[in-house]
Design goal:
Helix content: under 10%
Order of helices and strands: EEHEEEEEEEEEEEEEEEEEHEEEEEEEEE
Structural class: mainly beta
Strand content: over 45%
Largest sheet: 6 strands, mixed
Shape: elongated
CATH superfamily of the largest domain: Gamma-adaptin ear (GAE) domain
Number of helices: 2
Number of domains: 4
Number of strands: 28
CATH class of the largest domain: Mainly Beta
Distance between the termini: 103 Å
């Protein structure tokens, strides 16, 4: 009959602790009215309690900090930090100690150890310490694998490892909508929702445009010569609250001529979001490249390049149009026909030839009109 030998105890002990910021201490106030039996006793005890806020003892939020009592939540975009300690619990010197920390995600395995070199020896009651950092870039299950190998005084090679499993949650829910203007401008609305259980300070929400566009942020207004955020002076986003950010993208000069003939899916850019939580813990997320379906204009596109906002009654005014041949292979022979309405009248010759317009090219046209009716036209 085969008998398994007893399991040998290891000479080294491994401890792994997550490094997080402390939290504000909360207490439960106990008070009563003066006419009740305890009188002012409860209120005096709260005033003498060093953890309460002076002058606001009945508030639950204290002015002391408390260390985290559990592993806590980890959110995408935050930095995961952990303290790893290997202690020699034995009474003999241990040699060739190698500590390795790997982070296993659903798609890859990352080495987080600051050094891969072995420590020559570790005396009794001494320890090897290491702090690891990793910016979390995937959601889902993560496993921290800590492996320790060493050699005893008798020359025996020993090895053990421990696994620490944690979940990475999604901190923000980002939804985008595109609006195409009659001009070549594109408006992007980004809806950002706080999915965590604590308020967020939104430090930055910006759009990094693709090479084709210049971007203008529409999330502030000018008041008394100063630029003020439309969200107010406090940029806090409460749990489960949603905020809308708006951006205007305009094609660069070198791409503006081609804007009317671009078809299919085009890349707009990506959102860069930076936030801070309770005690300044920083998080950052970048979306993937945002794409939109360019609107189709058929064979010919007519767009207004310039038109006055206000005109005088029965006085000629000028507009500028641009005609674009959206075809990739056909040359077009254009004829201008001008049709009057009851309120707007053309000044010029109708039925004249504009000439030939080659594929993927544009023609600017200056025209003159006058209005015979007051009001909005």
């Amino acid at each position: 009959m085969e008998v398994n030998p007893p399991k040998q105890e290891h000479l080294l002990a491994l401890k792994v602790m997550r490094l997080t910021k402390p939290t504000l201490f909360t207490n439960i106030p106990v008070t009563c009215e003066e006419k009740d039996l305890p009188g002012d006793l409860f209120n005096q005890l709260m005033r003498d309690d060093p953890s309460t806020v002076n002058g606001a003892e009945v508030l639950m939020l204290g002015e002391m900090l408390t260390l985290p009592q559990n592993f806590g939540n980890i959110f995408l975009g935050e930095t995961f930090s952990s303290y790893i300690s290997v202690h020699n619990d034995s009474n003999q010197v241990v040699k060739d100690i190698l500590v390795k920390a790997d982070l296993q995600t659903s798609s890859q395995r990352l080495n987080l150890s600051a050094s891969n070199a072995a420590v020559a020896e570790l005396k009794p009651d001494c320890c090897i310490d290491d702090v690891i950092h990793h910016e979390v870039k995937e959601i889902g299950t993560h496993i921290l694998v800590c492996a320790v190998s060493y050699t005893t005084q008798a020359g025996e090679k020993m090895y053990f490892r421990k696994f620490f499993k944690f979940q990475v949650l999604k901190p923000l829910d980002v939804k985008t909508k595109f609006y195409n203007a009659e001009t070549d401008e594109v408006f992007l609305e980004a809806q950002i929702q706080n999915m965590t259980t604590s308020p967020m300070f939104m430090e930055k929400v910006s759009l990094e445009p693709s090479i084709m566009y210049n971007v203008t942020e529409l999330n502030s207004v000018t008041q008394a010569g100063e630029c003020v955020s439309t969200f107010g002076s406090r940029a806090y986003l409460q749990p489960m609250d949603t905020r809308q950010y708006l951006y205007c993208l305009k094609p660069k000069k070198e791409f503006a001529e081609k804007a009317g003939i671009i078809k299919g899916v085009t890349v707009i850019g990506k959102l860069d979001i930076v936030w801070k939580t309770n005690l300044g813990e920083r998080g950052r997320l970048q979306t993937s490249q945002l794409q939109r379906m360019a609107p189709g204009y058929g064979d010919v596109r007519l767009s207004l390049e310039a038109i006055p906002d206000t005109v005088n009654l029965e006085e000629p005014f000028h507009i500028t149009c641009k005609i674009t041949n959206c075809s990739s292979e056909r040359t077009m022979d254009l004829v201008l026909e001008m049709c009057n309405t009851n309120s707007i009248h053309w000044c010029g010759i109708s039925g004249r030839q504009l000439g030939k317009l080659h594929p993927s090219s544009s023609l600017s046209l200056a025209l003159t009109l006058l209005s015979s009716v007051q009001g909005l036209q």
